[in-house]
Design a protein that fits this description.
2 domains; seven-stranded mixed β-sheet; 40% helix; 15% strand; binds pyridoxal-5'-phosphate
Length: 374
């Protein structure tokens, strides 16, 4: 067998949610609450524009490798100039390209655990070393990070709001860190920006050591199209462009994302609905005594007695949620994507049929403090 390079041989891969043909074939029956996708389709304007393009083409030509139209719309949407924006085949692709552009053997990347795990894979495949730091309150963010900084620290990876805990670092704190450490690149992953509206985007204009990644997969409901982007100073963008594969943001993804940006009220209505159903579901769960951790994004965490049993049971009912219970800080926890109200009512109906002994955590345990503890 021909072996992969040592950095890849050593890697433990990222573990995906459920994305397979069987689920896709059954998508009308399945309630997919495991990957923080939207539970409704994209704006009808997206469908109409894509259908029209399929008829008129050209499909036989490569896409616009600069995503000119999309970057123009993104500049309007974000308030960040076009030359600070690069598009990608999903924000994961942006993260991968950032790692490949800037990380080399022995470089250190600080990250706040627990967090979204994909960047680790990209960084480690470049032979970089991931340095975990425990999540800390906003006020002690810099202090905690500081303890992990060495002469080899090249990057800090911050998911804001964090997946899965929802922890958020303020823009002022991010800016203070940028100023204090001008030689370190800060990656701020804002995949869930639309749900919480905290953004460091203005810092991508004023500082040259920050890169912000965003996604069309969540609030815009375009996960299947694959489209994401980053915002950064042109001096960083120029370097990334050397290896960025412009063709991989396919034509349909570009026009779908443009159409989604032309119908922001559709996205905003969905975000409002998610917030309403989040409140409703949390209320139901709390009434049953189930410890819940809310987040400013489209997911929550619950703590249960038998996470594996519950996951399997829900799967047998065509409802997919995400097991986070193996993460040391998240013992007993399941992450649930929050979607539209109908989806959440369906979830709740089945959830109530779970055997009570699988749910209950001991009375008087630290679960009462779940909000504070993670
Ligand atoms: C924090 C975070 N970043 C990035 C991604 C990937 O997004 P995309 O679909 O744009 O690659 C996810 C998906 O779950 C995520 O949670």
């Amino acid at each position: 067998m021909i072996k992969a390079k040592p950095s890849v041989r050593r890697l433990s891969p990222y573990i995906n949610g459920h994305h397979n043909q069987e689920l896709i074939n059954n998508h009308r029956k399945v309630l997919k609450l495991d990957s923080n996708e939207s539970t409704i389709g994209p704006s009808p304007r997206v469908i109409g524009t894509v259908m029209q393009y399929l008829q008129e083409g050209p499909l036989n030509w490569y896409p616009d490798i600069d995503s000119t139209a999309l970057r123009l719309k993104l500049a309007q949407y974000t308030g960040v100039p076009k030359n600070h924006i690069l598009t990608f085949n999903g924000s994961d692709h942006a993260l991968e390209t950032i790692a490949r552009t800037f990380l080399d053997a022995g470089d250190e990347v600080i990250y706040f655990q627990p967090t979204y795990d994909h960047f680790r894979v990209y960084a480690q495949s470049c032979n970089a070393h991931m340095v975990p730091v425990n999540e800390a309150p906003d006020a002690s963010f810099i202090e905690c990070m500081q303890q992990a900084i060495t002469s080899r620290t090249k990057m800090v990876y911050l998911v804001n709001p964090n997946n899965p805990t929802g922890h958020t670092v303020s823009v002022d704190t991010v800016e203070a860190a940028l100023i204090k450490y001008p030689e370190i690149i800060f990656i701020v992953d804002e995949a869930y920006y639309e749900f919480c509206e905290v953004t460091a985007s203005s810092l991508a204009v004023t500082h040259d050591n920050i890169m912000i990644t965003r996604s069309f997969s969540k609030a815009f409901g375009l996960a299947g199209f694959r489209c994401g982007y980053l915002m950064a100073h042109p001096s960083l963008c120029q370097q990334i462009k050397k290896i960025r594969v412009g063709k991989s943001i396919n034509t349909l993804a570009q026009i779908a994302a443009c159409a989604a940006l032309d119908d922001l009220s559709y996205m905003r209505r969905y975000v409002d609905e998610v917030n309403t159903s989040k409140k409703w579901l949390i209320n139901q769960l709390k009434k049953q005594g189930i410890p819940v951790k809310s987040t400013p994004a489209n997911y929550i965490l619950i703590r249960v007695q038998n996470p594996a049993g519950i996951l399997n049971y829900l799967e047998s009912q065509n409802i997919h949620t995400r097991d986070r219970s193996k993460i040391p800080e998240l013992k007993g926890m399941i992450r649930i994507t929050i979607g539209d109200q109908l989806a959440m009512k369906r979830f709740w109906k089945k959830f109530q049929t779970i055997p009570k002994e699988w749910l209950s955590t001991e009375a008087g345990s630290d679960d009462k403090n779940i909000e504070k503890k993670i």
